[in-house]
Amino acid sequence: MVRTVDGETRLPPGFAHPHASEEARRIAEDGMILRVQVGSGVHGTAISGQDDRDEMGICLEPAEFVTGLARVPRGIDSEAEVEFEQYQRHTVWDQPGGLANRSGAGDLDVVIYSARKWCRLALAGNPTVLLALFAPDDEVVYRNEAGAELVENAPRFVSRLAADRFIGYLRAQRDAMLGASGAHNGRPELVAAHGYDTKFAMHALRLGIQGIEYLTTGRITLPVPEPDLGRLRAVRRGEVELSRVVQEITDTETRLEAIRDSSTVRDQPDRRWVDDWLHRSHLAFWAG
User: Where is the segment annotated Disordered (predicted)?
Assistant: First the structure.
């Protein structure tokens, strides 16, 4: 049985960002059902003093945003409006440089998705949003009954769609590590120190390891258990040669593809249950 956690729902104040209006913040706080730590901290791969804190959450929306056409301002002091999909806030934006700043040690990056958007992403197998279902209790900031029910039913999201997403994310991280054309830019300081971007490398290997576990068990163990955690941290510290890292990533990709193509993984997630959960949860929220 997944327990509730009566923790913090307050969020950093609004900002001049399309998903950071004060109204969006209030919706996220008032309708919050789940808020957890994600990112390197919860994986166990963070390097002390080098990583920010990433949090993700889910909220239910007021009725007028679901059954009507209500919208929220496009950031603070903006007359333009957007559909409410999430509240997103990085505390590093408060420093000189604003939105252009990259988060670092001590910074908080938080995003609270509407339950409808989160479910769309999770049903499509998005590895990043799925992690919210597997944070250990000591990394849960807030979780009410609706959030606990969602977490308890995490295996309903497993499908070949998720397999494809894990493989796609793995390849994107590997391509970025190798500096492939069109990929994300590497971190110059890591390339200078180790010859390759060790953070991209670690995430590529992690995605393979976690994807295999998720497709075979319906769960993701956090933090990553040993001996895999030790290997990921060694890669992150640049202690593994690039050629070896590439081979290990390729091996996990091959295993993921084999599991995806086996008869043990269903084609589609349990959309009917998810739709019913969304319907019931919103009705209960609106009823107060």
Answer: 1-21
For residue 153, which of 270, 7, 3, 5 has the smallest C-alpha distance? Answer: 270
Element (H, E) at 82: strand 81-82
pTM of model > 0.90: yes
Which two structure tokens, joined as six digits, stand for 237? 């510290």
The residue extents of the domains of the chain are 22-154+269-287, 160-260
Exposure letters 163-175 (e unless 16+ CB within 10 A, then b): bebbbebbbbbbb
Task: State the architecture of 22-154+269-287 in CATH terms.
Answer: 2-Layer Sandwich (3.30)
How distant, in Å, are the alpha carbons of 128, 137, 147 from that of 131?
6, 13, 13
- Residue by residue, DSSP assigns 199-225 as HHHHHHHHHHHHHHHHHHHS---SSPP
Measure the CA–CA gap between 211 and 253, rounded to whole angstroms.
9
